[in-house]
TrEMBL record:
This is YuiA family protein. InterPro entries: DUF5351. It comes from the Bacteria. It comes from Psychrobacillus faecigallinarum.
Length: 45
């Protein structure tokens, strides 16, 4: 049986904890890594 351990980091490394990306042409897009929460969830086997 494989167990997954989830560790929660302080902030998402891709969006730097903001939960979104600022687009160059205006507007913003939700971060796909953290789904807009700003918190990183890493799965370790």
């Amino acid at each position: 049986m494989i167990k997954f351990k989830t560790e929660t980091a302080k902030s998402c490394p891709y969006c730097k904890g903001e939960g979104y990306f600022q687009l160059r042409l205006g507007g913003s897009e939700t971060c796909g890594c953290c789904n807009g929460s700003g918190k990183s969830n890493k799965k370790i086997i």
